[in-house]
Design goal:
Layout: H1 3-18, H2 22-35, H3 41-54, H4 57-64, E1 76-80, H5 90-98, E2 102-106, H6 114-125, E3 133-135, E4 144-148, H7 151-161, E5 166-169, E6 173-177, H8 184-195, E7 205-211, H9 217-221, H10 233-248, E8 254-255, E9 260-263, E10 273-279, H11 282-292, E11 296-300, H12 328-333
Parallel strand pairs: 1-2, 1-4, 2-3, 4-5, 6-7, 6-11, 7-10, 9-10
Antiparallel strand pairs: 8-9
Helix pairs in contact: 1-3, 1-6
């Protein structure tokens, strides 16, 4: 297949995902959640909508048009898929296959079904992908590796794959900058950045930078549409646990009844908690953002002025918004 044929195949895959029969969609929801209770039907649907956005013809062509593919010698590229949100490894799957390499995918035990099902749809659309799409338990034969995991697992990945060409991603999170001038609409949109996928994605906001003396009343008033998260058993267990820790240790915090805010210089907050940190002037804010940059996936702000991501858009990246800001296609074309 040439690049144009691969683009057309993925465009058709997007259409197939959009028009999945209801019984098939329900089956996907059920099988995904059976393995991982965080993968609710709403979150699986949200992930499928994100994949559909990726597979719009204009999006694919604008992305691919940034590179010169030429003649690619197919290499076996092992990909260790993440499982923190539904189909988290789809971008890597797409990147390897669109570049003409052979994907050897090790699926996460937390999400072993969705990418397999999507891969099956792709083969229905374009059977010529069959030799290029392999789901494997081990990646010993891979010529190169892309692996996503925690800081601890990254050390393991470096040990086993360090001698091969690799991209190894570690823990990242996202933050938001508030100035006190935000509208109710903007703060409600920020809620999507916080609560989508229960805050488990690296593009979810887990930290707020707010001006000294910031009044959180308007922020809390505009998070009400997300209150239903408290009815999810795993989320409420986290909420109850973190609230009890703050109460037992007399730690100052704010409580909306479904979200806890706690002042901390840390970046990565536990589920049901968002950390916040104050700033006095724009120069101090920029200094804090620069210091946090190695662990930040994206910065959300009004108009995207501090990081290019507007409120409500953190979980709607473009294909060229690479994880950890490492250009996956450039890496694959260098093999």
């Amino acid at each position: 297949m040439n690049t144009e044929e691969r683009i057309n195949a993925f465009t058709q895959l997007g259409t197939r995902i959009e028009t999945l029969p209801e019984e098939t969609r329900y089956e996907w929801y059920t099988l995904a959640r059976a393995r991982n209770n965080w993968l609710t039907p709403e979150n699986v649907q949200l992930a499928l909508e994100g994949i559909r956005k990726y597979l719009q013809p204009d999006e694919l062509r604008q992305w691919v048009g940034r590179y010169s593919f030429g003649e690619v010698q197919p290499r076996k590229v092992g990909v260790v898929m993440a499982g923190n949100i539904p189909a988290a490894g789809f971008h890597d799957m797409l990147s390897v296959l669109i570049s003409g390499h052979i994907l050897h995918a090790k699926l996460s035990s937390q999400d072993p079904f969705l990418l397999n099902a999507i891969g099956g749809l792709l083969l229905e659309v374009e059977p010529a992908f069959a030799p290029f799409l392999v789901f494997a338990d081990r990646l010993n034969d891979a010529d190169a590796v892309i692996a996503t995991g925690s800081d601890n697992s990254a050390r393991y990945f470096h040990y086993y794959f360090g001698k091969k060409p690799h991209i190894i991603r570690q823990n990242r999170t996202s933050c938001a900058v508030l100035t006190g001038e935000e509208t109710a609409h903007q703060l409600a949109a920020l809620g999507r950045d916080i609560f989508q996928y229960f805050g488990l994605g690296c593009r979810n906001v887990s930290k707020l930078f707010v001006p000294e003396g910031y009044d959180f009343d308007l922020f809390f008033e505009n998070q009400g549409e997300f209150a239903q998260v408290i009815h999810h058993n795993k989320y409420v267990n986290n909420y109850d646990y973190n609230k009890s820790i703050y109460l037992i240790n007399s730690l100052p915090h704010l409580d909306s009844g479904f979200l806890l805010l706690h002042e901390s210089e840390a970046l990565v907050s536990p589920v049901s908690v968002v950390y916040y940190e104050t700033w006095r002037n724009p120069a101090e804010l920029q200094q804090k953002l620069d210091a946090a940059a190695p662990k930040i996936q994206c910065v959300v702000s009004g108009g995207g002025v501090y990081g290019g991501v507007d409120f409500g858009q953190a979980q709607r990246p473009h294909l060229w918004d690479y994880a950890d800001r490492v250009d996956t296609i450039a890496f694959l074309l260098s093999l």
